[in-house]
Design a protein that fits this description.
Length: 375
């Protein structure tokens, strides 16, 4: 970016004077035609205005106007590819150096006061609507004959739905819901897998190191095996023990064995029922505690309340804009003097620009003449 030349400052002074500054300053409305004619994006123009308005009074004195014009011309002429975040030292007027330092200090102070952003924890509550979504995703995955689902099958479905999830995150969550490193998991761990990755994708939640106790118990439980061959060795041992008994009391031995087996089976069933009832009671207790904690949350944390407030704010802003437009369109008396002044101002600007164009043409002719003389 070349430094300012004296002829540039004279050119900017001519433009500045043509805008009819008040108290040696021009406001945004006065500079707006120049900004608009540059054809630059509004975000670029806003950044240029922010950099030029060093004293932040929403007006530009001549020194600030020079900064604004120079940045605009550099962007239009492709001397720079983007607006700098800070003004270069050679573009800062001597009278504004102290203000620039103060602005930097304020920015650093504001950055220090901002709280560090910490990724939210995973909220393990799954609403009925969530479960419907997860069930559809799970049903679209290819399942094993026993109804379980493998990592490749489930991860391909999740990857097609959540685009901000990487392979390492999927592996980490899979190991989280599959602590026994099985080849496939059943429905509940699959729901936990999808739910955790969905929160990581949507809100950037941090993947936890462990599951809540109730969920961990479900993921650690053994799946029921329906393979009858697994029980054949026990049957053989039982048969061998039966055949080793006294041949004369075969009938009594068989009856005794059968009755013992019945008692053993009944005891095992009772134990399983008791364990399931205890597990159910514990889950009910945890569900009640979660519901009680949820009911204590303030109403402003309710997404529906927040949405209603934001919609109300949006409606208020739209009403204000509409009122402003209505006021501007109301039958105000036309100020002929104001229109005449505007026309005079435009004519003066046209005169300045024509003079500038004529000077440039003369310079071009001189350059052509010099080039012709050197041949």
């Amino acid at each position: 970016m070349p430094k300012l030349e004296q002829f540039e400052i004279k050119k900017y002074w001519q433009i500045f004077s043509g805008l009819k500054p008040e108290n040696n300053k021009v406001n945004h409305d006065q500079v707006l035609p120049i900004l608009f004619n540059s054809k630059l994006d509004s975000s670029v123009l806003n950044k240029i205005w922010f950099l030029a308005d060093i004293d932040e009074d929403d007006d530009l004195d001549f020194e600030e106007f020079v900064i604004c014009m120079r940045l605009i011309f550099d962007m239009v002429n492709k001397n720079i590819s983007s607006v700098p975040d800070e003004l270069p030292d050679w573009l800062v007027p001597g009278s504004k150096v102290g203000m620039i330092k103060e602005r930097k200090q304020n920015k650093q102070r504001e950055a220090a006061d901002l709280p560090s952003e910490r990724p939210p924890d995973v909220d393990w509550y799954m609403s009925p609507e969530d479960l419907v979504v997860y069930e559809k995703l799970l049903n679209s995955a290819e399942k094993m004959t026993d109804g379980t689902v493998t990592f490749p099958s489930l991860s391909s479905v999740v990857r097609s739905k959540f685009y901000n999830i990487g392979s390492s995150d999927m592996n980490q969550v899979w190991n989280l819901v599959n602590p026994k490193r099985k080849a496939s998991i059943d429905k509940d761990p699959a729901y936990y897998f999808i739910h955790c990755l969905r929160q990581c994708n949507d809100v950037g939640a941090k993947i936890p190191g462990q599951l809540p106790r109730a969920m961990a118990d479900i993921c650690n439980k053994e799946s029921v095996s329906y393979d009858l061959n697994d029980y054949k060795p026990d049957m053989k041992r039982e048969e061998s023990s039966t055949s080793a008994s006294n041949n004369s009391g075969v009938k009594n031995s068989t009856t005794t064995t059968a009755s013992a087996t019945g008692v053993s089976g009944g005891t095992s069933s009772d134990q399983e029922i008791s364990a399931l009832q205890a597990e159910l009671a514990r889950l009910d207790s945890e569900l009640s505690s979660v519901q009680s904690e949820t009911s204590k949350l303030p109403a402003e944390n309710d997404p529906a309340v927040v949405r209603k407030q934001l919609e109300g704010l949006l409606k208020f802003k739209r009403d204000r804009i509409q009122q402003a437009n209505n006021r501007s369109q109301m039958g105000r008396p036309i100020n002929n003097n104001s229109i005449r002044d505007d026309l005079d101002s435009i004519e003066e600007q046209m005169t300045v620009l024509e003079s500038y164009l004529e000077n440039k043409k003369q310079e071009l002719q001189q350059l052509k003449a010099e080039i012709q003389s050197t041949r």
